[in-house]
Design goal:
This protein is mainly alpha-helical. The chain contains 21 helices and ten strands.
């Protein structure tokens, strides 16, 4: 499971003071910044979705197995493919478990290590662990739940997969505990206060993750409540900063700035500068994280890699200047997401371009754009989805649908400065119409952010059938029928367990849809 023994940091004479605790805490974050971890964020959230197709896959590319990637993009996944390797996530989990196990002892050994400090560190570790498990459950469904550290090689590694609902309920309990003691923001003096608050777990991170888990579990009341907590906190923060914004939600405006237009101001702040007001939790990167930069540049491109191993799907990009099934011609998120001038291949812009000027000219990054886990518009669209599915009315008035429209249309209107204003009427005032609009708005707003496949799986789970979801996911294929026939069963929404894990953990059982005559089901 990738729970590599951390002998060097679990010895009794190591856990002596606050500095040593903090060093292991930061190792949890730095492990998430490594290329193998980011590779899975990209592959698990985007590869099987309708967002991406093959780019340039030739030569030696860091974190890319060329033949496997091409096969996976055609809808074929085997148990020995690198997409099925979950070891980097269990490595983070083990580090979190190690801190949770050993750090309380330091309270007795170091008088400078205060209970209040341990409490917010505990919140961080519980939340990072929960985040990793949530990715694992959504990607594999059946995964081992390990809550104690792997300390040395003599420990038993035989752990059966837990029921996904058992895992999710554990995550909820952990996050509810973390919510009580997580910091609202990190104090000045630790580092650059604002960037540090975005780079480490805060109450808003806990709330956003809880909302996401509740949405996955179709517990819409709880999802809405936690989304509202995030939004209310953002409103309060905006008021404290005397931030000017239109409407009910404090979004960075794509409007006039310093007496000249700044059409792409939101993109430039969120993805270019980073640690923006709208950010909730993101992985910061700089020149010291070359390993991560190799992963992102391999898949999406970089200043000196104009085309990555994955590019935007043709149906998404083709005809976008006139408007197509995904973007209206007025939607500036198209150029913010991919090259709209292409004719047959459409390189990705998001995370690659650090600046987009009003005239469409690009400033390509030197490969250290932060990877964003949660931001305000994501949470707004989570709440919109939950409201649509709850669909409560008061005195015959569709209050949930109306609120969902307000949330989703606020995100939409920021990106369509010159387009017609949407109204809560006609198709957009119906359950099915608004459901489709929210799903499409999530695709447009969160393109290439590792969200799309999970959005589609959530749709299939809710409907109890893969058919409608596959109609969307397979639009990128010339022959979608062959992929649909392979992916139609519910188990195919999830990845196989890697054969290496089956060899060392005899209690694991392979996803039945990936079992063939040559498949390892359990080690013998």
């Amino acid at each position: 499971m990738g729970t590599v023994p951390l002998n060097e940091i679990v010895l009794e004479n190591f856990w002596e003071n606050e500095e040593e605790v903090n060093s292991v805490v930061m190792s949890c974050y730095s492990r998430m910044a490594q290329g193998d971890f980011l590779t899975r964020l990209i592959l698990w959230g985007e590869l099987r979705s309708d967002n991406v197709v093959e780019g340039v896959v030739t030569g030696e590319i860091p974190y890319v197995n060329n033949n496997q990637l091409l096969d996976m993009l055609e809808g074929n996944i085997q148990q020995d493919y690198y997409i099925a390797d979950w070891s980097s996530f269990y490595s983070v989990i083990n580090r979190c478990n190690t801190v949770l196990h050993y750090a309380p002892q330091v309270l007795e050994r170091d008088p400078d290590f205060k209970t209040s400090e341990w409490e917010y560190i505990k919140a961080e570790m519980l939340t990072l662990r929960a985040l990793c498990y949530f990715y694992l459950v959504r990607s594999f469904r059946d995964v081992p739940l390990v809550l104690e550290p792997t300390i040395d090689d003599s420990q038993e590694f035989q752990v059966a997969a837990a029921d996904p609902n058992v895992v999710l309920e554990q995550l909820i309990r952990d996050l509810q505990e973390a919510e009580l003691v997580a910091l609202k923001k990190f104090p000045e003096g630790i580092s650059s206060e604002y960037s540090y608050t975005k780079a480490r777990v805060t109450k808003q991170t806990v709330w956003a993750l809880l909302a996401d888990i509740y949405l996955w579990m179709e517990r819409y009341d709880e999802c809405i409540a936690y989304c509202e907590k995030v939004i209310a906190e953002k409103v309060a923060e905006a008021n404290e900063r005397n931030m000017n914004y239109d409407g009910n939600y404090p979004l960075i405006a794509n409007t006039e700035s310093f007496k000249k237009t700044n059409v792409h101001q939101a993109y430039n702040q969120v993805f270019g500068v980073g640690n923006s007001f709208e950010s909730i939790f993101e992985m910061p990167f700089g020149y010291q994280y070359e390993d991560k930069r190799d992963a992102l540049r391999s898949y999406y491109g970089a200043w000196d890699v104009p085309i990555g191993a994955m590019t935007a799907s043709t149906f998404i990009a083709e005809g976008v200047n006139e408007g197509n099934d995904v973007y209206k011609s007025t939607d500036i998120r198209a150029i913010e997401s991919f090259d709209i001038t292409g004719t047959s291949i459409y390189p990705i812009h998001k995370y690659v371009c650090s600046l987009i000027s009003d005239d469409g000219s690009l400033g390509r990054t030197v490969d250290y754009s932060n990877w964003i886990f949660y931001r305000l518009t994501d949470v707004m669209l989570m709440e919109a989805e939950a409201l649509v599915e709850r669909n409560d009315s008061i005195d015959g008035k569709a209050v949930d649908l109306e609120k969902a429209f307000d949330l989703a249309s606020s995100v939409y209107h920021r990106a369509n400065l010159t387009g017609d204003k949407l109204l809560f009427s006609g198709e957009l005032a119906t359950l099915d119409g608004l459901r489709s609009f929210v799903l499409l708005e999530r695709q447009r707003e969160l393109m290439f952010e590792g969200k799309r496949w999970f959005d589609l799986v959530r749709k299939a789970r809710r409907e109890g059938d893969n058919s409608a979801m596959l109609d969307l996911a397979t639009r990128k294929y010339t022959n979608p029928g062959s992929v649909k026939s392979k992916w139609i069963k519910p188990d195919m929404l999830y990845l196989p367990i890697h054969e290496d894990e089956l060899k060392v953990n005899l209690l694991l059982k392979q996803n039945p849809e990936y079992i063939t005559d040559k498949t390892i089901t359990t080690a013998k």
